[in-house]
């Protein structure tokens, strides 16, 4: 070998660690020689209900058009989102998952010499998107596992172009309220783009969490990102969206792949967004599952971080990786979060009642071993 192509990669990329996804069911089934149907996966915050039947119908109706490129402007979905979010179509950006939105922001606004501010224990895509474009990451220590927005404000400097905030946050499930967000937005310098990542906002009921859309009119530097991967149950299709000022949306549109959202995803997202019953059921199952897991943890003498999302981080009081491995042996996949600086925790997605019960039984067995 004559050339070192790692050394030739731009410095930010050289230092990147690839995103580590939850272990796929089929992979564990192959490794253990198990029936995939017997494996419980609570590792990627997916909707345990399976997709909305309306979304499946919409996908089937698109099959005959698969030879065509999708609508590169996503007219139908953007129109629907604009109407429901109370914004103009020109303020909507569609993404190949909301990950795509985060990357578009990084590509458009970050570069070597500039930085992005985000919290310790925040979503792993923030450092990846930031470093991939050669920008610096300013990681602000968390406060009781949640975002310390005051400290994040203080970390903003003349080179800061983006602040990434998740509310609720993944993998901690922590959240902040409307007043905290209002205070923050009022003091962020106007040239700093605030990306408010609301991937789990549909699970938050009541007034405890702010609705990011309420702050758009007063803050031209705010982008709210949301996804169809979680409460809308379409993770495999990869579709998410950003709502921002029309000017920011125009900039993101310049760096976007022409057909970044495929036609099955566009059709399914429209149908899922209109399926209010499915969303209500998703929330109901989630709230019940959260209570079930909390009760189970209490019985096992474990503590956890209170969560407003569709997952919960449980404190094992001992390294999580061996417990994670032992749970795999029981056919249960959860998520170790050592790479998030939480070595004693496991993140568990809320499943169906029987899945939660399987997990709790396996955890009890593994901890007693
Ligand atoms: C799951 C998640 C996303 C969204 O992922 P996509 O599937 O790309 O839409 C974004 N942010 C956070 C914090 C998440 O946990």
Oligomeric state, counting identical vs distinct chains: single chain
The CATH level-2 architecture of the largest domain is identified as 3-Layer(aba) Sandwich
If helices are DSSP runs of H or I spanning 4 or more residues, what is the number of helices? Answer: 14
**Low-confidence spans:** none
CATH class of the largest domain: Alpha Beta
Task: Name the strands of the widest sheet in spatial order.
Answer: 2-8-7-6-5-3-4
| Hetero compounds | pyridoxal-5'-phosphate
User: Tell me, what's the shape?
Assistant: globular
Instruction: Give Rg in angstroms.
Output: 21 Å
Q: Give the name of the CATH superfamily of the largest domain.
A: Type I PLP-dependent aspartate aminotransferase-like (Major domain)
Mean pLDDT: 96
What does this structure look like?
The modification N6-(pyridoxal phosphate)lysine is found at residue 230. Residues 39-360 form the Aminotransferase class I/classII large domain. It comes from Pseudomonas cuatrocienegasensis. It is an enzyme of class 2 (transferase). With 369 residues, the chain is of the alpha/beta class. Helices cover 39% and strands 15% of the residues. The chain has 14 helices and 13 strands. Strand 12 and strand 13 form a beta hairpin. Helix 4 (53-62) runs antiparallel to helix 11 (263-273). The chain is globular and about 55 Å long. The chain binds pyridoxal-5'-phosphate (PLP).
């Amino acid at each position: 070998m004559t050339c070192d192509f790692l050394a030739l990669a731009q410095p930010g990329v050289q230092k990147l660690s690839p995103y580590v996804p939850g272990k796929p069911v089929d992979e564990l089934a192959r490794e253990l020689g198990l029936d995939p149907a017997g494996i419980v996966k609570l590792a990627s915050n997916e909707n345990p209900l399976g997709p909305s039947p309306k979304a499946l119908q919409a996908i089937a109706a698109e099959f005959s058009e698969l030879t065509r490129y999708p609508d590169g402007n996503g007219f139908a979905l953007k129109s629907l989102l604009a109407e429901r979010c109370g914004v103009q179509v020109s303020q909507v950006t569609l993404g190949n998952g909301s990950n795509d939105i985060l990357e578009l922001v990084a590509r458009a606004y970050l570069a070597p010499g500039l930085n992005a501010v985000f919290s310790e224990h925040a979503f792993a895509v923030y450092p990846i998107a930031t470093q991939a474009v050669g920008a610096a990451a300013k990681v602000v220590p968390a406060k009781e596992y949640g975002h310390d927005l005051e400290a994040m404000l203080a970390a903003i400097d003349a080179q800061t172009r983006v602040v990434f905030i998740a509310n609720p946050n993944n993998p901690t499930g922590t959240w902040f309220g409307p007043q905290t967000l209002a205070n923050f937005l009022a003091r962020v310098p106007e040239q700093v783009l605030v990306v408010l990542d609301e991937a789990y906002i549909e699970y938050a009921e009541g007034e405890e969490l702010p609705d990011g859309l309420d702050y758009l009119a007063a803050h031209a530097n705010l982008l709210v990102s949301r996804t169809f991967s979680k409460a809308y149950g379409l993770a495999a299709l990869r579709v998410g969206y950003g709502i921002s000022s029309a000017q920011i949306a125009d900039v993101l549109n310049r760096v976007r792949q022409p057909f970044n959202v495929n036609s099955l995803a566009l059709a399914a997202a429209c149908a899922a967004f209109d399926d209010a019953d499915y969303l209500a059921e998703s929330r109901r199952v989630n709230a019940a599952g959260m209570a079930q897991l909390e009760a189970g943890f209490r019985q096992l003498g474990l503590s956890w971080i209170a969560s407003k999302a569709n997952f919960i981080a449980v404190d094992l009081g001992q390294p999580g990786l061996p417990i994670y491995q032992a749970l795999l042996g029981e056919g249960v996949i959860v998520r170790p979060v050592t790479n998030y600086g939480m070595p004693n925790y496991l993140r568990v997605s809320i499943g169906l009642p029987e899945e939660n019960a399987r997990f709790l039984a396996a955890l009890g067995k593994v901890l007693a071993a």
